[in-house]
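job 3f2a | input accepted
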Amino acid sequence: MTKRGLPLEGIKVLDLSRVLAGPWCSQNLADLGADIIKVERPETGDDTRAWGPPYLKDAQGNDTSEAAYYLSANRNKRSIAIDIASEEGSNLVRELAKSCDILVENFKVGGLKKYGLDYDSIKEINPRLIYCSITGFGQTGPMAKEPGYDFIIQGMGGLMSITGERDDLPGGGPQKAGVAVTDLMTGMYATIGILGALQERNKSGLGQHIDVALLDCHIAMLANQNLNYMTSGVAPKRAGNAHQNVVPYQVFASSDGHLIVAVGNDRQFAAYSKAIGRPDLAENPDYTTNSSRLQNRKELIAILELIMRTDTRDNWLEKLKAAGVPCGPINTIDQVFEMPQVKARNIWKTIEHPIAGVAPTTANPINYSATPIQYRMAPPLLGEHTEEILREFNLDDQYKLNQ
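job 3f2a | predicted structure (403 res):
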């Protein structure tokens, strides 16, 4: 049988991005087999290297220089330290770009032009290059030159208007997501865009510029909430842990904790009603269909909240699962990694690390049957591969970088 390589084996990526959206994109490409050359500022490197504690610990339990945040988005990459603001540095980046397939950057609009590293300059020396720019607001429009930050975009882009407890309840008000979802989603869209451009290049032989904006991606990911507004003219509001369109689909308090009940259709509501000892609820015209339950949400939820407080969380979970009602606990992250399902899926991985011995990493959720993801390299130390990369590109005699 012919040995099959990783999907992107042989593809070289010049990564000029930092923090999260860009590195998340390039880590996706790295996991698929691409060779990622991470260009970093000498001495300081990617901003997230300093975003700690916590830091990776060595075998003796002492903090290393590697922040956990940085580790989350930079495995399977090689690091080269280049001062792109210097003439030597910008010239070197252009030399590397001549032999690469993809370039990823997240500088402000126009920020790389003064170094001759913008798309129009680079495509002259490598017309096959796929050049992906990740910015806050895109290459066009009145806000194009403004910087973009995940937190600000979550507020500006509408997510915080629909996230958090209802304004009329204790604790009500806008709430951001617990992770930088805008950065992460932008990194995912950038990955998809690059893969599409690679496929198109197989036909045309030419690269192109990809313009990906945090605000655009953020608005796109609002999905059904956008359509709720676009079809009704009414902007959705915060609903806490309840669903905007489905009832009951929310968190309930039990006698000793909380659980999620996610009734997705009328058949499941009938099963749920029976499981909680109130089959009559499903027969009541006010609650028989999801539309009627939406119209009578307040009255129904008041009844259900009283019932759900009469038993423990785990007892409810057992009863509801036995009845085929979608439900689940609310776990802390340490509890997540103790789940038998999570252990069975091998989601906690470790990679050899030059300072710490080993470093933890979260498995890529893509599971290929023939070309499985490989965890080849831990997130690199700053400039760890500078000499190696210069030799590989036959540039070691021409450039002697001080790191």
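job 3f2a | The mean pLDDT is 95.
job 3f2a | closed
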